[in-house]
Amino acid sequence: MSVRENLEAIKKQIEVACTKNNRNSDEVNIIAVTKYVSIKTAEEALESGVEHLGESRDFGLLEKYEALGEKPVWHFIGTLQSRKVKDIIGKVDYIHSLDRLSLAKEIQKRAEGKVRCFVQVNISEESSKHGLSKEDALTFIKQLERFSSIEVVGLMTMAPHTDDKESIRTVFRELKELQEEVKRLHLPYAPCNELSMGMSNDFEIAVEEGATFVRIGTALVGKEL
Ligand SMILES: *Cc1c(COP(=O)(O)O)cnc(C)c1O
């Protein structure tokens, strides 16, 4: 299937998930994750109507940014080493993996304007995954007040690798609950209106549970590299 056909199918699935939960599908942004595909396929995604591209490695981001420039909205979705911040800042529109003060400090040091960040939470507490525990996330977000360049636009999580749909759903639901807690704090630098959750295998559940950004690689652009 072409990227365009995949996109149409995914949009329909998102529509269905939204209808089930009385959501407007306009609230759901599709990020095409291009880490496994060529520049050419990333271009095909843009031509098919995708507006957001996501990369999880600094070199992948830089390579594609060089070719595609500011056409897409760029998302950095992977683990971010502090020493790489200076290379990607100013190029990416959103960072999805803010999970420690040392990284916040580096973003603050390098940023020229506001940087839109998602705080990454490891709801499932799988040790292989990055992100803060649910318990630590609120404290962390409160500590971000002193970093004037950081705007906490939302929370991000990755569901566990499992076929158990209910445990995936629980993870997404808990992220949504945590988002509500952050919103209740009314922190001016942390509106936290967005939820970045859902990948190829679980984006429908994520949308049912309130995702506003889904990060879809394989099911949308395939896997070439
Ligand atoms: C690779 C990746 C995705 C997309 O994964 P697919 O299963 O191919 O859709 C989403 N989010 C993050 C953080 C990733 O690293």
Automatic annotation (TrEMBL):
| Keyword Electron transport assigned | no
Query: Residues bearing N6-(pyridoxal phosphate)lysine?
Result: 35
Sequence ranges assigned to domain Alanine racemase N-terminal in this UniProt record: 6-222
- Tell me the cofactors it needs: pyridoxal 5'-phosphate
Name a GO molecular-function annotation. Answer: pyridoxal phosphate binding
Q: Which InterPro entries match?
A: Ala_racemase_N, PLP-binding_barrel, PyrdxlP_homeostasis
Q: Does the keyword Transferase apply?
A: no
Task: Name the keywords, alphabetized.
Answer: Pyridoxal phosphate
> Which Pfam families does the record cross-reference, listed alphabetically?
Ala_racemase_N
What highest taxon heads this organism's lineage?
Bacteria
Its biological purpose is as follows: Pyridoxal 5'-phosphate (PLP)-binding protein, which is involved in PLP homeostasis.
PANTHER family xref list: PROLINE SYNTHETASE CO-TRANSCRIBED BACTERIAL HOMOLOG PROTEIN, PYRIDOXAL PHOSPHATE HOMEOSTASIS PROTEIN
Name the NCBIfam families on file: YggS family pyridoxal phosphate-dependent enzyme (TIGR00044)
Its family remark reads:
Belongs to the pyridoxal phosphate-binding protein YggS/PROSC family.
What is this protein called in UniProt?
A: Pyridoxal phosphate homeostasis protein
**What organism does the UniProt record list as the source?**
Exobacillus caeni
Q: What is the lineage of its organism?
A: Bacteria, Bacillati, Bacillota, Bacilli, Bacillales
